[in-house]
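so the lab meeting is tmrw and i was supposed to have these ready like two days ago... anyway. pasting both below. for each one the top line is the aa sequence and the line under it is the structure tokens. i havent really looked at them closely yet so no promises
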Amino acid sequence: MESEDNPVVSSVASADSADGAKNTLKISSSSLNKELKMGAEYTALHLIPSPGAIPRIPGVDIFGITLPFNGVAGGDLISYVNFQDRFDLDVRIRNASVQGREDIVQELQKLRNTGGILVADVAGHEFTDAMRALMLHQAFHTAAQYEMDLNGEITVRLFEQVNTRFLKSKTLRSPAAEKDLAAFITLIYGEISHTGRFRFVSAGHPPPLVFSREYDRFVEITPDRLISYPPIGLQPGEDYADARHFERALGYKEHYTVNDLNLMGRGDILFLYTDGLVDAFSRFNLGHFERTVSRFKDGNAGEICKAVLGERDTIQEQCDDISLVVIKRN
């Protein structure tokens, strides 16, 4: 019998092992790249709302587009709440009536002609940021279900809970971010009714823009109707029960409140967007934006949305994720 310490046998075995390891590494790398590609495509598929998800509201036309910087999936998110399709309002109204909850009945009745729109921007535009956007999407709709069961409407408590969850969770925060700097999300959530009333909550997000058909320009909105709070995941609420366990260098935030806007006239247009569309350093500024809307204001929401994005593309190369939602009162 050969000795187990035979140097010839050992060197041959070592060479075979090394070659096998290299082959295994190549196979693993190839498989990993395939899995990552599939994961990115899956994430992108679930971050882009289907056309049927857009709320159908009498007298209101809605359309939105997200353009990831990497061409597949980034940190921007558009999500809709089509109350009529997502929830059985008749059953909920009947149950609330039996329980004597007329307050909930009234809120549910309002939702028959109301739609919700969430626009969010995760700090960053890599695939990992797309995953965080997908987590936000799931957290939002899970909390929305709970809110509807409890209150018959979505309240600001939903955003308090989401803020706390992203603040506390290492899984949801960016692994590359400093504790208080880059791990945050801006968002705006609003509900538009058939009357043109838009009620919304903002967490560090660019403010809505309203284009008046009568005056053919963006109209000025007073600051008291555009109140915004710190981005999601930066500061705990001021009276959060566990706040002392999560002391933050940036302090504590006040409670979210709801802003109220109105699309007064037919043809007025409301815009929700992320800062990849227009910011202080962009060559595509509010003047370009306004002139483009003026030229296409007679189109539907989809035509206006595509025209604005097309004009921006001719003026400045994309360097971030871009999202735009157009809400037009017909």
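ok protien two:
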Amino acid sequence: MEGIEHVRPEEIEKRSFEIIGKELYERGISIPIEQEMITKRVIHTTADFDYAKTLTFSKNSPKILKDLFYHGADIVTDTNMALAGINKKVLERFGGVAHCYMAEEEVARLAEERGITRAAISMEKAAQIRKPVVFVIGNAPTALIRLYEMIQEGSWRPAFIIGVPVGFVNVEAAKELIQKTNVPSIVNVGRKGGSNVAAAICNAVLYGIR
């Protein structure tokens, strides 16, 4: 059929990354080597080249995140969709476990009693984990806001924050709050993001661990 490129199933991802690399070059976009695979995997997931310009990385954040996963850090997500998208087999190989508390009855009850979101309550629950925690936020800006409040209170400090919620209400402001902290982070500025983007960032780093 005209216009159809015949590619073997096992070669599709490789071919996709070749196309992404070619288009980045044609657009005159150069990505620092330590950020390259993360950015390319997000583009691969979304088919959106804007991420080459809007993904922001704190100093040495790709290496810090890789080291955290290698030494068994846990993940806490704000959606079961992000949880499903993360390659948990690779994470568990290094001793890490992925969690999402959003559907728990206790979380729903406390959120209703206090008049705040389940995402905010989930962040508080995650603070009880007695090992380094990587927060993977793709949907709820209130999760980022609560993390910021906890950091400012000095009661607890996350090991790392992936802050890529999507939407219109408080999304951009919440991302900016995380960038003001000294916590290592990967944040997508602007309204774009999502659970698929959050999972893609994790997987890009997990697949790079040798």
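from a quick look at the 2nd one: The longest strand covers residues 133-137. The radius of gyration is 18 Å. will dig more after coffe
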